[in-house]
Amino acid sequence: MQKPSLFFKNIRYSLDALVVFLSYFLTAYGFNRGIIPIISPVFYIVAISLWWSMSLFSKLYSDRRSNKFSEEIVFILYHTIVFAVSLSSVLFFLSLNNKYSSPFIIVFVSVCSFLAIATKYALRKKIHSALYHGAYFDQVLLIGNNQVAANFIETVNKYYYYGYQCAGYIADQPSIQNEVQYFGQLDQLNQVLSSKKINEVFIALSNKESKQIQDCIRICDNNNVRVRMLPDLTDFTTSSVFIQNIGQLPVVNIGSLPLDKAENKLVKRIFDIVFAAVFFLTIGIFILPFIALIIKLTSKGPIIFKQERWGLNNQKITCFKFRSMVKESSDIDEGGNYNQAFKNDPRITWIGKFLRQTNLDELPQFWNVLIGNMSVVGPRPHPTPLNLESMQTVDNYMLRHMVLPGITGLAQVNGCRGETKTTEEMQRRVNFDLYYIHRWSFWIDLQIIIQTVVNIFRGDQNAY
Question: What is d(CA 324, CA 361) in angstroms, rounded to the nearest whole number?
């Protein structure tokens, strides 16, 4: 029987074939009608062949069930660029570039991109709905009973949309208390795989049990079952870890920071300047004066709120925001601690509540981006009192200042925004920040920006 993931992958191939056909039909119908044929089998065959073949380079059909849709959007956009270049080249060699002009190709590829995003989003929601109702799960078997194994079970149970269902586990002792069936010891693996419908096996054994690991892999290979490893790399989760081989020996590398490289800094800085300038010249020129007028008419006090925060290398910066609280608000409570905004905070004005929920209060920080003490994407800068409190209680807290702070960040799009009531909540936010710092790429920045825009319209329960 086909695995559910393979079943949906085949559906995505089929949908994309339909997307290419429909995109051509719509573009040809609305573009130079009478010159470009509405139906062109040659163009369609070339286009769909290139769409599928270019996916080998763009990884369009990779399994991203555990990733946000914003990441998939980035890969779709990257794929359409590769597709457009390859399509133009093939049409040139086939001497069809005169028939299908550059404007036609640009419109056609743009429609392909839009329809591909729309259909993949609809399919993703359909899959999530099916998973929520208990269908299309990949049945997985877990080998091991350590903390990594327990975390895996907790994760797949909590995030059902990953598409995994733990059928049970095998270990020397039945010690996992997550209502998962115990199938016996390691020597019963072959029997379990023969009698149960298992799609994948996850091995969570320690490095000291290398012989057992090899035996498990051999048995899984004999039963034609895919194997994945769950290594205990907890100590390296905030480092730039990557694995490569020296001969047949796998080596875990702890790399330097991506933004330590001058070329990466330059790319990020150019993107920041262009993005901020485009914002001010398009959206900002209209929305900033409008928001400023509403704030001025609805409450007393300055329009812009200036606050001291910590930026790159712990340097103090002045962070600009639209004022969202009453003029008399204080950042320090009666006990001398930093007074974070909380749900139904009486200090927040009615327009301020809307601005904070939609992140519009952060828009003046694009000026911070232009002058160079902030970036569009990066760890959110915290006020000085909150920094002083957190640096004493949160592990690796000061490491988040190794890069420029951002208007939005990986922690924020993953729900770590607003009030941090406990040390654990702040630690989770810092872990996301460090993960971003050690794994930065231009594509991650695009993904975070797209997810931020999505969250503005979808809303965030921690935004207040």
Answer: 7
Structural domains in the chain (count): 3
Question: How many residues would you count in the chain?
Answer: 464
Domain membership of residue 85 as a residue range: 4-132
Of 132, 152, 178, the residue that ends a domain is 132
**Does residue 381 belong to any structural domain of this protein?**
yes
Tens of pLDDT, residue by residue over 436-447, are: 998 899 989 998
Nearest by Cα to 71 from 120, 15, 132, 21: 120
Whether the CB-CB separation of 361 and 394 falls below 8 Å is answered with no
> Hey, what's the torsion of the CAs at 83, 84, 88, 91, to 10 degrees?
50
pTM over cut 0.90: no
Structure tokens at 270: 């150019």
Whether the CB-CB separation of 58 and 78 falls below 8 Å is answered with yes
Contacts within 8 Å (CB) and 24+ apart, 110-115: 111/23, 111/26, 111/27, 112/19, 112/20, 112/23, 112/51, 112/80, 112/83, 113/76, 113/77, 113/80, 115/19, 115/22, 115/23
Sign of CA dihedral 3, 8, 10, 11: positive
Give the pLDDT confidence score for residue 252 in this predicted structure.
58
- Residue 287 to residue 281: CA distance in whole angstroms: 11
CA distance 261 to 458: 36
In which band, very low, low, confident or very high, does the pLDDT at 87 lie, cut at 50, 70 and 90? very high
- Is residue 100 assigned to a domain? yes
Rounded CA-CA distance 73/219 in Å is 38
Question: How many CA within 13 A on the CB side of residue 216?
Answer: 26
Residue-wise pLDDT tens digits, 103-148? 888 999 999 999 999 999 888 888 878 777 767 778 889 888 888 8
- Containing 249, the helix (H) or strand (E) segment is strand 249-254
> Taking a C-beta distance cutoff of 8 angstroms, is the pair 143, 205 a contact?
yes
Which residue has 């995994």 as its token pair?
A: 164
Tell me which residue of 402, 412, 418 sits closest to 447, measured CA to CA: 412
* Dihedral pair phi/psi, residue 164, rounded to 5°: -110, 145
Taking the C-alpha atoms of residue 250 and residue 256, their distance in angstroms, rounded to an integer, is 19
Residue 245 lies inside a defined structural domain of this protein = no
